[in-house]
């Protein structure tokens, strides 16, 4: 039995259901919105498992699901050496978002990473501690800043509304996912540099789960 993990709620779940329906496979909840099992019509020997998008990388790595739908940002952040754990079968064309670095829009002299690196260096000299960047994406942000040779900063964890950390004086900058940028503008923040990562919903196969022939047969059924 192939176990397919998809997001359990919201627009991402609805778009995932639509994507499979367009390929002749109908997914649906088994009962109420509080139930985390589902039905699959149009394909044999496939079981639907409803999970949070953030849980799906872990379940794929452990081999508890054979296939999963989640954002590329979550795969790359939560799975070190992700290519050894999962195979990307198909970008799904929705759930687009960019992981970006943003600073207060009143920083008129900060228009790019070179400016940011200078401000970070001067901030440390003036305040005696490193400029704080609030984020949920420590692995991706640290690797990107290292590659761009930006040094004088510290990452602080944000598990709530990251955009509010600057106004709350718990960070000087943020690195977060955005799709439209409206929330950033509402919080008087501006994006500098190109995105750290462009993300979208992706169908992935677990390496550890095995059953390669059955998974391939289902992928063929989807036209992949």
Summary keywords:
elongated; 33% strand; D-Maltodextrin-Binding Protein, domain 2; seven-stranded mixed beta sheet; five-stranded mixed beta sheet; 224 residues; 2 domains; alpha/beta
Detailed description of the structure:
With 224 residues, this protein is an alpha/beta fold. The chain folds into 2 domains: 2-95 and 200-221, Periplasmic binding protein-like II (D-Maltodextrin-Binding Protein, domain 2, 3-Layer(aba) Sandwich), CATH 3.40.190.10; 97-199, Periplasmic binding protein-like II (D-Maltodextrin-Binding Protein, domain 2). 29% of the residues lie in helices and 33% in strands. It has helices at 10-21, 56-62, 72-78, 113-127, 138-147, 182-186, 212-221, and strands at residues 2-7, 26-29, 37-41, 46-51, 67-71, 86-91, 97-104, 131-135, 153-157, 173-178, 189-199, 201-206. It has a 7-stranded mixed β-sheet with strand order 2-3-4-1-5-12-6. A 5-stranded mixed β-sheet has the order 9-8-10-7-11. Strand 2 and strand 3 (37-41) form a beta hairpin. The longest helix has 15 residues, at 113-127. The radius of gyration is 20 Å and the shape is elongated. The mean pLDDT is 94. It catalyses: 1-(5-phospho-beta-D-ribosyl)-ATP + diphosphate = 5-phospho-alpha-D-ribose 1-diphosphate + ATP. It comes from Paracoccus limosus. Its EC number is 2.4.2.17. GO terms for molecular function: ATP phosphoribosyltransferase activity.
